[in-house]
From TrEMBL:
<dbReference type="InterPro" id="IPR018379">
    <property type="entry name" value="BEN_domain"/>
</dbReference>
<dbReference type="GO" id="GO:0003677">
    <property type="term" value="F:DNA binding"/>
</dbReference>
<feature type="domain" description="BEN">
    <location>
        <begin position="30"/>
        <end position="122"/>
    </location>
</feature>
<protein>
    <recommendedName>
        <fullName>BEN domain-containing protein</fullName>
    </recommendedName>
</protein>
<dbReference type="Pfam" id="PF10523">
    <property type="entry name" value="BEN"/>
</dbReference>
Length: 129
């Protein structure tokens, strides 16, 4: 269930939506994880895969997705930062609320792919510098 809450105004990913001096927030599922209501409403709701990946970027940020994994383990046993389980679960809950027939394993696979994509983008950008 999504809950809307007003929080103190602050920019979020370059956006600053104010409602009488406050930034309207949406809680994901039954968690304490919140995102700006306006940005949440803008997420594409047609395809579960796009919704999941855009929501993950909104909740976690590109930098975090690039340097972390679901388990904290990278390729060939290297250690990486682990994504926050509370945020992962909030994303899973929000996706399953919007797309009820979705399996948790599908969502986790998309989160994994999103981490891999952002990691690849970050490494290719740093090698071009």
């Amino acid at each position: 269930m999504l809950h809307v809450k007003l929080c103190s105004s602050q920019p979020w990913y370059g956006y600053n939506y104010k409602a009488s001096g406050k930034l309207a927030q949406v809680s994901l599922g039954n968690s304490l994880v919140q995102v700006p209501k306006r940005l949440y409403q803008r997420l594409s709701g047609r395809r579960m895969s796009l919704f999941t990946q855009k929501l993950a970027t909104l909740v976690l940020g590109r930098e975090t997705l690039a340097k972390a994994t679901l388990t904290g383990k990278g390729k060939k046993g290297e250690l990486k930062e682990q994504l926050e389980p509370e945020k992962n679960n909030a994303i899973i809950d929000a996706v399953r609320e919007r797309f009820p027939n979705t399996e948790v394993a599908e969502i986790r696979a998309l989160l994994r792919r999103n981490c891999n994509n952002e990691s690849y983008k970050a490494s290719s950008n740093s090698s071009q510098s």
